[in-house]
Amino acid sequence: MAETPVAEHRPASAALAEAARVGLIAGALAFPVLALRAEPDFSNRLVLQPRWSWMLGAAVAGFAGRLLLSLLPPRRPKTAQAAQAKRASRRAAQAFAAFGLGLIFIWPLLVLLALGPGGALKWIDNYGVQILIYVMLGWGLNIVVGLAGLLDLGYVAFYAVGAYSYALLATNYGASFWICLPVAGCLAAFWGVLLGFPVLRLRGDYLAIVTLAFGEIIRIVLINFSALTNGDAGIASIPRATFFGLPFVPGPKGFDAFFGLPFSPIHRVVFLYYLILALALVTNLATLRLRRLPIGRAWEALREDEIACRSLGIDTTKTKLTAFALGAMFGGFAGAFFAARQGFVSPSSFNFTESATILAIVVLGGRGSQIGVAAAAIAIVGGSELLRELDFLKHVFGEDFDPTQYRMLLVGLAMVMMMNWRPRGFVSTREPSIFLGARKQIGGDFVKEGRG
Amino acid sequence: MEVFLQQLINGLTLGSIYGLIAIGYTMVFGIIGMVNFAHGDVFMLSAFIALILFLALQQFFGVQSLALSFVIVLFLSMALTGLWNYAIERMAYRRLRGSFRLAPLISAIGMSIFLSNFVYVAQGPRNKAAPPMFTEVVKLTSGGAYNVTLSYKQILIVVVTAVLLAVFWFVVQKTPLGRAQRACEQDAKMAALLGIDVNRTVAATFVIGAALAAVAGVLYVLYYGVVNAADGFVPGVKAFTAAVLGGIGSIPGAVVGGLLIGLIETFWSAYFSADYKDVAAFSILAITLIFMPSGLLGRPDVEKV
């Protein structure tokens, strides 16, 4: 190992010793929980099954990881050349974004052409609709977390309000999806104001914890208020969304008969795809326009430094409340869509893991960056759908191996690593909404974020 | 009256566990001003470590004496959980101390997700039931329709908590390490100028907080006999509530808050509704933070520009 190239400022032996130390610690950490698995035997008593190889693996991984980290060249200070390269890569990113948007528009048709109606269903539903719901949720939360800088850990509560609004109105009063959609958004915004009002005086981290508490309270109420919500069992057979009154059913009254097409379930999925795409794009467009209004500028100013904002006479209460309400409203829209797509809602869809996933999308993508959030949603949700496809790994690691359970493990790890290495997320540039002379992109490193 | 007495005993037992976890929150908040969101999951991890060590002592070493294995498990779990939290602080939080305010919190949320899923993957999704231990009970009243009982477990929990709190109090008040901690709490920059190794002191704070959470974990396994990888979240939030209620940053406050939360939760379950017992704790959290952010024993938070 002595001949491995090591950064000059550090002797190889020191790097090796450090790596050995990390390896030892990793092995020790892995000792009880990873190396000894407690499984019940026939008489239902727990028996330990040793897996010492896992412990060894952890130690080796710690050793190798630390060694790799010391071998990496130290960070160079930014030069004009690097700035040039960065500008070029930004142009490439813009081109990529345009290409991506085009791909998203023709995705269902592309898949249909490639796989035919039978095989395309899964690809449009799991890889299209599912991802776009999270893109929309990410964009909605981006207003609160990314623009206004309020860390909301209970965002899923508004998603739940939207979903249950539609579910209850549709099953009890037979209201149509198109009437319920705005109602769900308004109700979610109303709850956003209601929950937002008391927490606005709090500082950032307290606000995060209180929104978490509110999110959990709403979920517990949904579970226990059975008379209205049917408790844990949830609400089933919610009417599906219709094509402006035409339901997607076989028979003379359906969408297919009206347009003279043969009945196929694929029509409904394609319709849902374009519906959520439109909703997501409305969210995006609204956010982009709002950023140019005084209120949007106030949000971003608030994120950078609350004390400075207050001293400049910005009404922080009003500013925070609008961010909360608008973020909640888009969450409510997404919730109504979710209920109409699944046809079934239950409290288990709205737990803290869901909030954490949406937050991870915003944090990893880059708080405040629309394109970054969309990319992160595609990576996280699409990635976890892809994990489902990795069944062949079962032949490698044995039948018990389930790749999907590693999803949140990786998400958590990614959040920690992102905060350490790129605290502003994957897309870290800040686009100024107001400028003197020419528009210039600002690297996140140049903006000092206040500690307000 | 009997029911009240019984709930008082149960509440104090539960409150001891919350108080031990709450100290970890309050110490970390006091010294680096961060809400250590992953602390509840560190507690859950320590409960798993304790359970596995109990089983390992029986299975591999044939230790039959319950008292002996309890002592070994207690100290080993404290050491291992301390090591875990040391590694977590080193990897996830140390670099973020100068970053923007929400960065450590977001990192801690990521760490919390990582830890609960790590245990989930390593140990499986099912509840793990420990063999019953210390099952004897003392009847405090007899002959009535409802007998008040005090189990050995409950005595053990309260005694262990009290002893360890005394040791911990001694460390913070009388040793050089405790002095360094209190100095960093007041002004980290000034403490560094005076030659205190701030990084080491913060690391020691995390280790001590984790060791106390590990005590709570061992006692939790003993008391409930069941652990699950998802068990870190709710006790974590409740212990944080306890820390906030007592006044975050104040160590006696954390203990008082823990006991209060334990009592409120048990009485709420007994007299109102067990379904909504978590709502009670979460509401107290929100109400305290909104109306009384410095808690019962805390100092008011002064905003410096």
Specify the CATH architecture of the largest domain in chain A: Orthogonal Bundle
Largest sheet of chain A: 2 strands, antiparallel
So what's the overall shape of chain B? globular
Interface with most residues: A-B, 67 and 66 residues
**Order of helical and strand elements of chain B:** HHHHEEEHHHHEHHH
> What is the CATH topology of the largest domain in chain A?
ABC transporter involved in vitamin B12 uptake, BtuC
Number of helices of chain B: 11
From the spread of the alpha carbons, the general shape of chain A counts as globular
Sequence of strands across the biggest β-sheet of chain A: 1-2
Look at the structure and give the mean pLDDT of chain A.
84
Annotation, overall tally of beta strands of chain B: 4
Describe this structure as you would to a colleague.
Chain A is mainly alpha-helical and 452 residues long. Chain A folds into two domains: 12-71; 87-446, ABC transporter involved in vitamin B12 uptake, BtuC (Orthogonal Bundle). Chain A has 16 helices and two strands. Chain A has helices spanning 12-30, 52-71, 80-147, 156-173, 177-199, 204-224, 226-229, 255-258, 266-292, 294-304, 306-311, 316-342, 352-365, 370-389, 393-397, 407-421; strands at residues 36-40, 46-50. Chain A has a two-stranded antiparallel ribbon. The longest helix of chain A is centred in the first third of the chain and has 68 residues, at 80-147. Chain A is globular. In chain A, 41% of the residues are buried. Residues 1-7 of chain A have low confidence and may be disordered. Chain B has a single domain (2-291), classed as ABC transporter involved in vitamin B12 uptake, BtuC (Orthogonal Bundle), CATH 1.10.3470. In chain B, the strands form two sheets. Chain B has a two-stranded antiparallel ribbon with strand order 1-4. A two-stranded antiparallel sheet of chain B has the order 2-3. In chain B, helix 1 crosses helix 9 (233-246). Chain B starts with a helix and ends in a 14-residue tail after the last helix. The model of chain B has no long low-confidence stretch (mean pLDDT 89). Chain B contains eleven helices and four strands, in the order ααααβββααααβααα. Chain B has helices at 2-32, 39-60, 66-93, 102-123, 152-174, 176-186, 188-193, 198-224, 233-246, 251-271, 277-291, and strands at residues 128-129, 137-139, 149-151, 226-227. With 305 residues, chain B is mostly helical. Chains A and B meet through helix 1, strand 1, strand 2, helix 6 and helix 13 of A and helix 2, helix 3, helix 4, strand 1 and helix 9 of B.
